[in-house]
Amino acid sequence: MHEGAERLYRFLAGYFRVPENLEKFIYLTQLNQGEALKTAISHWRSRMFKTNGCLIWQINDCWPVISWSLIDYYFRPKPAYYYVKRAFSPIYIALNLRGRNLQVSIVNDTLQCIRGVLKLSIQKLTGELLFSKTIEDLEIEANSAKECLIVDVENFRGAVAVAEVSFNGSKVINDVLIGKFKHVEFPDPILNVEVNKLKSRTFKVTLTVKNYAYGVYVKLRNLDAKYSENYLSIPPNSRAEILVETPKDLTVDEFRSMLEYGFLKW
Q1: Can 91-183 and 192-262 be said to share one CATH topology?
Q2: What is the band of 3 on the pLDDT scale with cuts at 50, 70, 90?
Q3: Between the CA of residue 177 and those of 24, 71, 84, what are the distances in Å?
Q4: What are 97-122's pLDDT values in tens digits?
Q5: Residue whose C-alpha is closest to residue 209's, from 194, 193, 229, 189
Q6: How far apart are CA 85 and CA 38, in angstroms?
Q7: Which CATH code, of 3.40.50.720, 2.60.40.10, 3.90.1150.10, 3.30.70.2190, is assigned to 192-262?
Q8: Annotated domain spans of the chain
Q9: What CATH fold (topology level) applies to the domain 91-183?
Q10: What one-character-per-residue DSSP string does 167-200 give?
């Protein structure tokens, strides 16, 4: 028995609210795919070397089609591509929700030992601090993964956990929403967008939020550009930067006139 659109609806309903609008349905099903892949990769990488890798099916399409690929027929990355890219970062903070607990593991896929500080905070989506924990003198051996924290988060449903590792002047950050998206009322993130031209055909888009924002994306209308990052979450009172390479040179005003952006809202 064939099952196509039915499966999309069934999987989406498990975690997100099912919309009536087609454009919103396409957006949410792709976020759902990204979450599924990120969750699996995060789990497997935190088990190094009990689990030693995974195969992504599939990377791209050989014709225009609705599929589970990460890149479409026209070589445009789908939202899940960015989720997978982040989840395979050489140094990665795996935030795995297991029942009522949050497991925080650090994955070091480099050949150098990491020494630094781990900070975990749990915040309301408006930024109010609910819980914090710091581990000084963190050490993660080369080519290894280490479970660093297990926190009971049963009383923090609807909040966001933000983890940060600082080492050698660098910083790695990851976050996870505690609970299912469909049960959460997202506040207006109060998103501010700033555009700067770095050089010919390269722009920097800076996204600043007051409240938590999820599924944040930018795109240029009617122009296939390359984005260093996209479809991301931004913790409260934080910012993210996206580098955009355009196929032709544009002025800042032309870029702004074509720029579209959005985030998850019900």
Answers
A1: yes
A2: confident
A3: 20, 26, 17
A4: 999 999 999 999 999 999 999 999 99
A5: 189
A6: 9
A7: 2.60.40.10
A8: 5-87, 91-183, 192-262
A9: Immunoglobulin-like (2.60.40)
A10: ETTEEEEEEEESS-GGG--PPP---EEEEEEEET
- Please answer whether residues 243 and 255 qualify as being in contact, where contact means their C-beta atoms are separated by less than 8 angstroms: no
Spatial distance between the Cα atoms of 64 and 86, rounded to a whole number of angstroms: 26
β 170-177/160-167 pair status: antiparallel
- How far apart CA 118 and CA 87 sit, in angstroms, is 18
What letter represents residue 201's amino acid? Answer: R
pLDDT digits (tens, 9 = 90+) for 24-81: 999 999 999 999 999 999 999 999 999 988 888 899 999 999 999 999 999 999 999 9
Q: Which of 82, 183, 43, 164 is nearest to 125 (CA)?
A: 183
